[in-house]
Design goal:
By secondary structure, the chain is mainly beta. The protein has 2 domains: 42 residues, no CATH class; 52 residues. The chain is 7% helix and 35% strand. It starts with a strand and ends in an 18-residue tail after the last strand.
């Protein structure tokens, strides 16, 4: 069941399942006649309200992971373009990664990349 779904009063007749994100009825609930209340239906894990909320919770500068399949990450990169990047990290327990282009190839990291500082050259006066 969705972690954002809850009942106001579970013991009432045909108790309605609500969403804690927007406070309205859960869009993925269906009436169960055996239990005489609304229950979570299939597709709750792909709830558009929950996914939109997860995208707003990621840190600045990171990219949202849509899903992982066969060793590749499908990441929203740039202007909501989804790119396929080889997963070199392994198991990822968060819904975002940091992406950087190195030598024409996209690389992912769980931590932000360090910015490279320009080397300064100083012109010393000869004595």
């Amino acid at each position: 069941m969705c972690p954002n779904a809850f009942y106001v009063n579970e013991n009432e007749h045909r108790a309605v399942l609500y969403c804690s994100i927007n406070g309205k009825n859960c869009i993925h609930s269906t009436l169960c006649l055996k239990k005489d209340k609304y229950i979570g239906a299939n597709g709750m894990e792909n709830c558009s309200i929950m996914l939109a909320n997860q995208k707003t919770d990621i840190p600045k500068g990171s990219s949202y992971i849509r899903f992982e399949k066969k060793g590749y990450l499908y990441v929203e990169y740039g202007d909501n373009h989804v790119v396929k990047i080889k997963n070199t990290i392994g198991e990822i327990k968060q819904n975002y990664v940091y992406v950087k282009e190195i030598d024409g190839e996209l690389v992912v990291s769980l931590k932000p990349f360090k910015e490279e500082k320009e080397k300064r050259t100083y012109n010393r006066k000869k004595k």
